[in-house]
Design brief:
By secondary structure, the chain is an alpha/beta fold. The chain contains 31 helices and 22 strands. Residues about 150-155 and about 230-240 have low confidence and may be disordered.
Length: about 800
Amino acid sequence: MTSSEKMPAPALITLSRESLREAAVADGAQVIGVTGHLMLDARERAETERYIRQQCRTLFEGHSGTVRLLSGLAPGADLVATAAILDEADRAHIKVELIALLPRSAERLLVDWLRRSKELGQTVSPDSLQRVRLLLATLLARSSTTLDLCTTVGGDNHQAAYRRLAAVLAVVPSRLFAVAREGYGGMSGGTAEILAWRRDPTSIPPALLELVEGLGRGGETHLIDPRGHIAPAAVSEAEQRSEQALTQAIRTHLKAGDALSAYDLAARALERGGESAPLRYLLLLSLAAAGSVYSALEQFERWAPPESERDEDWLALRGRLLKDLAFSGVDVQANLERAAAEYGAAYAKTGGMFSGINAATLYLLCGEGARAARLAKDLLQLPAEPPQGTPAARYYSHASRAEAHLVLTELDACREELAKASTLLRDDLITRSRTRRQLARIAAHHGVDAGGLIDLLEMPNVYVLGASSLASGALPASLARRIEGAPLFAVADQQPHTLGRIEACVRSGARLNLILPEDREELLEHCRVEHGSATAERLARIIEGAERVSSLRGFLVTEKAWCLAEAVRLAHGLAQVAASGLGVGVCALQPPAEATDWSVDAAPAVPAIAAVKNRRMVGLIFTDVVGFRRFTDEDVAAFWAIVMPALGEEVAAYGDQVLLAATWGDAIHVVTTGAEPAANLCLRLIDRVAALRASGTGALANLRIRLGAHFAPAFEGYDPVERQRTYFGSQLAFAASVEPVTPPSMAYVTEAFAAQLALEAPGRFQMEYAGELELAKRYGTFRLHGLTPTSG
């Protein structure tokens, strides 16, 4: 077979529950699956083959009967793993029936492989292409059944086909070989999603779960790092569901800033009977990280182990919560003092660097400089993390020692430790930003120029990609270095020159945050119609490769220009939110104009929005009183006599900024002229309810309110029943789905609201990322932020 010859087309069977059962599990044979959406170099390929062969020798020893092997046959790790298993089976004289699950035609699999190789800068020689073609053709010829996953999901929608493949591999195999690099992420339908679904099949979307439910028997997963950085080991199903795996998943969510998902995992585990101290600790930590510090403090004694059994984490946790309150502007001096005392007590019992350095810093900030200095000197006598320690341990060691030196105003030593820390955890922007923020507080206390210190711990700015009508090639080397690893916010329309600009930035290492001016599938379809399949596939690859994708909602087909302008504003607003959280600036990355090259503008301009007849962008608030359904008639009467008039006063105080206010039962719905008045009103309502709770009796003594807010387009019209101006549209129902999932005494806002608020009132509010959450009323999963005022 030559490289130009067409791949042989096997007889395809449409994938269905029945065809899958017949091909793979009808007679109870052992089923093996392979997954690994990776491009492997020669060394990684050898490491993967070595491990699989080793495991298969043990697996096949003394085995009798048929084995079935499920594979998507994608060139790369999939193909390497499949071939290695079949080779070892042949050596052991074991009968293996290969079941090919094709999410793309064989020819398209090769095209995708060549495209991906090019994107990674890898040159595929004619010999290599010929070898892969031959191997793929050989395995297709050897397959006993070839199931077609693509036509089942409507034409060439390959992402949906890959998700169907993911569901099959997550559930059906009794043993799964998964090739993934340490810290694996990836696209929808990729190895990471397969592993997540295998750990928790209930997280598989219902339509896909219906395909595979009841066809799997569970079993082992072999996680293979092709680089050999982690020791591969078989993980049993029981171990996958173990508490250790669960706590690691929670910590991963926290590290990614997804506090709400972390809290949800911990809460569900405790509901199912989990009782370990680490789970309870993570429950409180994630609750606080999601913005509900008061609730975490209130629940501390309920979940904390006895005093004698508390480790350093538990001993320091209350101090950590009090510190969060202080730095958010709540009773600053008192909470700093209490937090310092908690950390100090934890250090006295454990001698740990974490509790010690926090105690030293907080003692300094609350005015006990001599005590802070003594503690910092003691900490610097502790041994530093050895060079063979993990990167994270070494980073925290250098950062803590830098903090101790700064407490002592030993600036040269501080700089030396920061220079060492800066070489570590370079991709962990959240951790680095927290260190910089802590150092800035100490420097401000001493009156030292913080910039000269914290800049040693390098952090990229956040960038917004500007517009241009010209096609754009590669960025200049100087700009490419600046945006490498930097968050980049860009709007993806259908235009090929727009895609070229985005691709150029991604090739330079930018971390893409993509704004879609319409639903993903609609955008791809419009792109396919207007610019052809090749451009639509480019757009699909950009979407799939982005770190985050946000879509605008609620716009009409005739409002494309308005929608696109709002998408640009959303990109600017989300960039401001991200920059505020990281403590860096926002820059506009400007593509070439007619007579210029790429450039950076330190003050990006945010476009103004023209008015649209009978339509406008509005702030949307929905409130709910927690536990109102359990109120007696006497409680309801007291609520309407005391609480509702007080809340009505707060709403009325905003005058013309309130376009509509309505109530039913315990709920209040408010439409405002913008995000800033909506944010102010949300926080005022929370404060007013807290004050009423403090003076209340009976049910009112436990009064809690929760609020959801959104910023979106709405129709302005006339209500013929209530005979007044009203606002309506799909986004009001969407906004109402946020409030039911909000923790008590908090306001959660959508990305659109957070972005608009960052533009309307920069620096006035804190919007802590709370994670991706499944909204009420089956609206799907969306990213939410916890809203609090900025300290000071």
